Amino acid sequence: MSSAIQKMMQDIGMRARAASRAMARASSEQKNQALLHIAKAVRQKSAEIQKINQIDVERAKANGQDAAFIDRLTMTPKTIETMALGLEQIVSLEDPIGKITPLKKQASGIELGQMRVPLGVIGIIYESRPNVTIDAAALCLKSGNAVILRGGSEAIDSNTLLAQIIQEGLSAAGLPKDAVQVVTTTDRSAVGEMITMTQYIDVIVPRGGKSLIARLMAEARVPMIKHLDGICHTYIDADADVAMAVKVCDNAKTQRYAPCNAMETLLVNQEIANTVLPTLCKIYQDKGVELRVDSLTRKTLEANGFQNLVDAKEEDWQTEYLAPILSIKTVANIDEAMNHIEQYGSKHTDAIITNNKAQADRFLREVDSASVMVNASTRFADGFEYGLGAEIGISNDKLHARGPVGLDGLTSLKYVVMGHGEIRT
User: Fold this and answer.
1) CA 271, CA 269: separation in Å to the nearest integer?
2) Residue 172: Cβ within 10 Å count
3) Nearest residue to 23 via CA among 125, 114, 147
4) What is the pTM of this model?
5) Three-state secondary-structure class, residue 284
6) Less CB within 10 Å around the terminal CB: N or C of the chain?
7) DSSP of 103-158
């Protein structure tokens, strides 16, 4: 690593740490004022954002990036409006900072509670999604944190413009611009420095592909909130409503292929397979989805005239496609479905389609994932859809934060003691 990169990152870290103290004492009114200013500017500058984003998109195409990558990188009027709505939704959320739980009097006479406080400085490392710049900054801002954003080189122009908009909003509200900083170098060694700066950064949130997160898991010294894969399953139970199953499973796979909450494996109870699979798989094939199937599913579909099926291999069950490809397996019962999810799932999001409450309850209790759903598309596993405003990421870890990470996930608790002159004896 060059000394210039190291010096730059250390300077960013020092300024973020200083800004975090100002953010911790910022009023809710100030933070909301900044967010509303940013939302207004995002709408006003929509055309400029799209124009700058197109530079990033054309560069990515020239570099041979695939369709899923381009989809994540592209900013449309809809995605820009969604960013603005996310900002406004965060404004409407109650500010968690400074809230104290009801005080409990102890035998000694002291009164004990817990106060919600910011984590401090958060580092976000992400690839190809420029909307993360706004989403992450907004959540960190509202939760009283400072944030260092290191986006991928492919979105450098978009991220730089969005950072300017954010910093204008901070200044307008009387908050330090250094509370949100974007790393403007594309030198990868900046990431190596960032993930070891324990004196300045309290937590790292990686948003990117397997190679990025695997590298950070191996090298980071700063704690992380993360998930590695989004291998999401939907199990169609024998007691499922067929029309509902078709509608939900179509949406879970084809509404968008690139997000981590898109369904990658469909599990179907053998009792309902012949009823639901022909209708559902015709929809998939009409939309250009490649079907990778086990032998029982192949038998069912070929009996109904289906062709162009691919035999599923072991690696298919453990692959996050992020593309129009779907693995399908016919299972004997809910136990086989849950065993499959336990073996191959990534503990991200899994769903059951059923009208049998006992089966639904078992699935909710026994499937060990960050989000578990009944009769709903896995595509709902999202901070905006959960009413968190934007999300900073999704965690499939079990400590601190799990599932879509919103405001509370970016805070911690400290004990507060109210005394009246008590001494310990």
Assistant:
1) 5
2) 16
3) 147
4) 0.82
5) helix
6) C
7) PEE-TTS-EEEEEEEE--EEEEEE-S-THHHHHHHHHHHHTT-EEEEE--GGGHHH
C-alpha 234/C-alpha 349 separation (Å) is 9
With a CB cutoff of 8 Å and minimum separation 6, the contacts of 357 are none
Q: In the sheet that 232-236 helps form, which strands lie side by side, from edge to edge?
A: 310-311, 290-293, 325-331, 263-269, 232-236, 349-353, 371-374
In 138-251, DSSP assigns E strands to 146-150, 180-182, 203-207, 232-236
Residue 317, Cβ neighbours under 10 Å: how many? 19
What value does the CA radius of gyration of the chain take, rounded to a whole number of Å?
A: 24
For tokens 């690139």, name the residue. 258
How many H helices and E strands in the chain?
Answer: 14, 16
Q: Which residues pair with 403 in a beta bridge?
A: 395
**Structural tokens at position 354:** 């059923």
Residue the block writes with tokens 């991928």: 152
Dihedral of the CA atoms 273, 276, 279, 285 (nearest 10)? -60
Extract long-range pairs of 216-219: CB within 8 Å, 24+ residues apart: 216/125, 216/191, 219/192, 219/195
User: Identity (one letter) of the amino acid at 64?
Assistant: G
Task: Let me know the angle formed at the C-alpha of 227 by 221 and 231, rounded to the nearest 5 degrees.
Answer: 150
Collapsed DSSP state (helix, strand, coil) of residue 18: helix
Which residue's structure tokens are 């870890």? 397
pLDDT per residue, tens digit, the chain (425 aa), is 578 999 999 999 999 999 999 999 999 999 999 999 999 999 999 999 999 999 999 999 999 998 888 998 999 999 999 999 989 989 999 999 999 999 999 999 999 999 999 999 999 998 878 988 998 899 999 999 999 999 988 899 999 999 999 999 999 999 999 999 999 888 889 999 999 999 999 999 998 777 888 889 999 999 999 887 899 999 999 999 999 999 999 999 999 998 999 999 999 999 999 999 999 999 999 999 999 999 999 999 999 999 999 999 999 999 999 999 999 999 999 999 999 999 999 999 999 999 999 999 999 999 999 999 999 999 999 987 998 766 777 898 888 889 998 899 999 999 999 999 999 99
Q: Which residues pair with 204 in a beta bridge?
A: 123, 224
Residue type, 160: T
Q: Give yes or no for a contact between 113 and 101, defined as CB atoms under 8 angstroms apart.
A: yes
User: Residue for token digits 């940013």?
Assistant: 38
Q: Are 265 and 295 in contact (CB under 8 A)?
A: no
